[in-house]
Amino acid sequence: MDWRRGAASGLVLATLAASGCSLSGGTTPGAVGPTPAPGASAGVTPTPAPEPTPLQASQAASPGATLALLPDTRSGQALDVPLIVRGLAVINRDHPVSSAYAPKVTGEAQLVPQASQAYAAMIAAAKADGASIIWRVGYRSYDTQQALSATPPTFYGKDADSYVAKPGRSEHQAGLAVDVASEQGYGTRFPETKEFAWLRANSYKYGFILRYPHDKTDITGYNYESWHYRYVGVEAAAAFGPNSELTLEEYLGGR
Length: 255
Description:
The chain has seven helices and six strands. With 255 residues, it is α+β, with helices and mostly antiparallel strands. The protein has a single domain (10-27, 35-224, 236-252), classed as CATH 3.30.1380.10. Strands 3-4-6-5 form a four-stranded antiparallel beta sheet. It has a two-stranded antiparallel sheet with strand order 1-2. A hairpin with a 2-residue loop joins strand 1 and strand 2. The longest helix has 16 residues, at 113-128. Residues 2-65 have low confidence and may be disordered.
């Protein structure tokens, strides 16, 4: 989750299947690793997305409500794939995956195929609008996350645990999350850039949401990360819409 470092049920289940994952048991690990790249390929025609629709009452948390944990009774080999809730993979502090989970990723963004294609379309659209989004991190393996969490960046200080996930608890291991930046600023300065403003207004059209919004640490388990975007697919992302502060946990009915 460090800056350096889906969707309808059918969409994300298909994404996981296309990534070599079996939802009924084990996975087919892919020999992959993040390779730094300047961004996704240009020339990709953006795919239109549905306009945002109001959240159903069952999808939105009441102000001040105490959210229940999403149920998770998995153990043993069941942890070789993510918990799936309403068709979306959930990986966080309370819902881990084992080291056996290693989806096949593709493209310069190092994401699972559908997320990679959506990211390329999003970057192309941003570029057409004069926003140059820089790719920083896509897929990160269990072992890489383990090494990162063991020696997190020193500038996080005592707060590192709220930024750097433990192994098996990072969305980057699913190939569904991407960290981005701008030439004008990265990390805590990213919100000052036009690239950040563009993403907040448009990322949902391509199936991406800001994963760790402001003042939601008690729900997500992680501090605000303006650079971390999660692919959920255009149908689910439409419920978030532009400039949303909704978390994935709230959308799914828990935390």
